[in-house]
Design brief:
Helices cover 46% and strands 18% of the residues. By secondary structure, it is an alpha+beta fold. InterPro entries: PilZ_domain (IPR009875).
Length: 306
């Protein structure tokens, strides 16, 4: 944007969060190893192996039970497919099979069962909770910033409690009741996946809520900003800059271009950051914010008595 005020700088106090990214543009704060342990990965593989074994070998191909359990397991697998991509900060929409998987998932409807069924309420509740997780993940993806920055703003769900619907599921499973065995495995699979999702949300909790951000005093322009820091920063390192401006969160990519000593004992470094590929809309929002702040401060300085 060819605007002289792009280089106008003004001191402001802003809630901000600075998130380091690697050379591929992925956040450094969370990685797969931090979100799921090797033991949990092996357990998930074992749950899948047992489920596939029961579904393939035991149920009659034409039975309604097989279809119901197939739908539940299919949705669980789609939930995990989305989580795996997000754990690596990858946009699932870029995968060649994303649209196909999404269309297939959208085809499913809540299962129906006989009123006399003892496990019917459990199956329906399980289906609904899986659906809530899938909807949440799809919202995170759709509302991402350029498919690179994913915000997890929805409140956490409690882990699924089968005892709210069937008091003796474990007893039935241990006694060899096949539907109970399969449901026990599915509940365990859902809760393991939900636990990993919760860790993912926790890793990005600070990004997702501006209420958790520090207030920075920054010298801001539409081209970049500088701020005082307690610690040094690596020159030319990249970060995502989250700023709350006039009640709206603005997310920009920034590159550290300078580092100087300051006169502040508590904050001995002044770090210079250059915005990278800011959109015209983002530049305009920053410029208008500065103009309003400058005008407001000017009015206050005139109104205050000497």
């Amino acid at each position: 944007m060819s605007n002289a005020r792009r280089y106008f700088r003004y001191d402001v106090i802003l809630p901000m969060h600075l998130e380091p990214v690697d050379r591929y543009g992925k956040h450094l704060s969370a990685g797969r190893r931090q979100l799921i342990s090797l033991v949990e990965e092996e357990h998930l593989k074992e749950l899948n192996a047992q489920l596939n074994g029961w579904l393939d070998k035991v149920f009659d191909a034409s039975s309604n039970a097989l279809y119901v359990f197939y739908v539940l397991n299919h949705r669980l697998n789609f939930m995990w497919w989305l989580i795996e991509h997000l754990m690596e900060s990858n946009d699932p929409r870029l995968a060649h099979d994303y649209k196909f998987r999404s269309r297939e998932d959208n085809k499913f409807t809540p299962p129906s069962s006989k009123k006399s069924s003892s496990v019917g309420p459990l199956i329906l509740a399980l289906y609904q909770q899986i659906g809530e997780y899938v909807d949440e993940l799809q919202t995170v993806i759709k509302e991402s910033v350029d498919g690179k920055i994913f915000i997890y703003s929805k409140a956490s769900l409690e882990l699924f409690d089968d005892k709210k619907y069937v008091k003796n599921l474990d007893e039935l499973a241990n006694n060899g009741v096949l539907p109970a065995k399969v449901l026990r495995l599915m509940v365990d699979k859902l809760n393991l996946q939900a636990t990993v999702l919760e860790r993912l949300k926790e890793a990005y909790r600070e990004i997702s809520s501006s209420g958790n951000w520090m207030n920075y005093r920054v010298n801001l322009s539409a081209g970049g900003f500088s701020f005082l820091s307690t610690s040094p920063h690596k020159i030319f390192s990249i970060m995502d800059v989250f700023m709350e401006i006039d009640g709206e969160v603005l997310i920009c990519r920034g590159k550290i271009i300078s580092q100087k000593e300051s006169n502040d004992e508590l904050h001995p470094y002044r770090i210079g950051v250059e915005f990278d590929l800011l959109t015209a809309e983002q530049e305009q929002k920053i410029t208008l914010f500065e103009q309003r702040k400058e005008l407001k401060d000017s009015i206050l300085s005139v109104a205050l008595p000497y």
